[in-house]
Design brief:
With 136 residues, this protein is mostly helical. The protein contains 6 helices and no strands.
Amino acid sequence: MATMRNIEGGHQTSYRPVILSRLERALGWQPGSVAAILAGGEPDPLPPPGTPASEQPAPARRRPDRTLGDVLVERGLRRPDELLLSDQVVDPLVEELLVSDAFDDEFKNQWLSSYSMMRRQIFEATEAQKRKPRDR
C-alpha cells in the first residue's frame, strides 16, 4: 500500500527491481513495462493465461543501441550518476539475455549486476595497466 502511494505521488524516484517486477505482474504487464513508461512509452500487456506461444504478441522492440548502462538504469539496478565508462557499451549479450524466456527477472537482474561489476573490474585493471611506467 505504501509503495503504491509513493509511486502514484511520485515521492520516490527509484525502486528495487523486485518491487517493479511485482507491480508489473500485478498490473498484467510484461517485464520492463515500467521502464518503458518512464521513458515515455507504453506498457506491454501480458497475454491471457493459456494463450499458445504462437499467438502471443511480441513484446515491444527495444532499442538495439541501448548500452549496458541504459539497461541497468531502466531496470532500477543503478542510478545514472552511478554509471561508469565501462557501462557505456552496447553489448549483444545484454539484449540476448533480456529477450530470453529461459530466465526470470530476478536472474536477469543478478546477471546484469554481476556483468557490470566484472566489466568495471576489467576496465579499471586496464586503465591501471596503461598508467604504469613501461620498462624499455
